[in-house]
Amino acid sequence: MKKNLLWLMAIISFWSCSPSEQELLDEGIKMMETEQYDKAIEFFDRTIEKNPANTTALNAKGVALFQQSKFDEAIASFSASIDVDSTSYKPYFNRGNAYLEKKSYKEALLDYNTANGLDPKQNDIYYNRGLALLALEQYEDAIFDFDVALQSDPNNALAQFNKAKAQLGNNDPVSAINSLINTVNLDKQNGAAYYLLGVTQMSAFGQKEDGCANLKLALSLGYAEAKTWIDDFCKE
After folding, report:
1. Can you give the pTM of this predicted structure?
2. Membrane spanning segments where (predicted)?
């Protein structure tokens, strides 16, 4: 009976204790790991209530909102984190990603530039900034960033593919062909890459046989735009 009473008292004591700021933050991160984003946000909000200057919680809340495609709310949370501490690259990078999703490419580029200045060793910054530069038609700068990304990860098929698009925008089909071949060698399910490879082979080099073969591969992978080219140029 005495043991039961002590056990009951221990439970009452535990639940009467308010969880600490760190415990709330840790629980939110656990919820993030299991993709329970609403619950994660609840824990991050409770953390922020205890300490409005907890930049980790502000940034993590932004990530949870981003994962729910609530980009404007995510941007507000990342901005709040930056207002408290502007020395970490993470909220700038994350806010840049949210702007990128909103197709606000100039704003994304500014944030990526700041993140890069704070930590130039972060490879993801170069790839994502390359995407923003590509969208802004700043092709030479985009190619540079994709090259930097590929130096540390040569098997990044998407970096090869987007580099090819930048090279085509920069009127360099020869280099683009090489990048597209690298892309499909790395990712044989990329219908868009086979399509762009086939179109470039036919339009820039008159390579009808190879071009048609790649267009047919693109169509077989579900890239429907290839059908128009096949119908127009690949009929016997």
Report:
1. 0.90
2. none
The pLDDT tens digits of the residues spanning 29-60 come to: 999 999 999 999 999 999 999 999 999 999 99
Tell me, letter by letter, the H, E, C secondary structure of the chain. CHHHHHHHHHHHHHHHCCCCHHHHHHHHHHHHHCCCHHHHHHHHHHHHHHCCCCHHHHHHHHHHHHHCCCHHHHHHHHHHHHHHCCCCHHHHHHHHHHHHHCCCHHHHHHHHHHHHHHCCCCHHHHHHHHHHHHHCCCHHHHHHHHHHHHHHCCCCHHHHHHHHHHHHHCCCHHHHHHHHHHHHHHCCCCHHHHHHHHHHHHHHHCCHHHHHHHHHHHHHCCCCCHHHHHHHHCCC
**Which tokens belong to 49?**
């209530």
Per-residue pLDDT of 119-156, as tens digits, reads: 999 999 999 999 999 999 999 999 999 999 999 999 99
**Which token pair is 137?**
């038609």
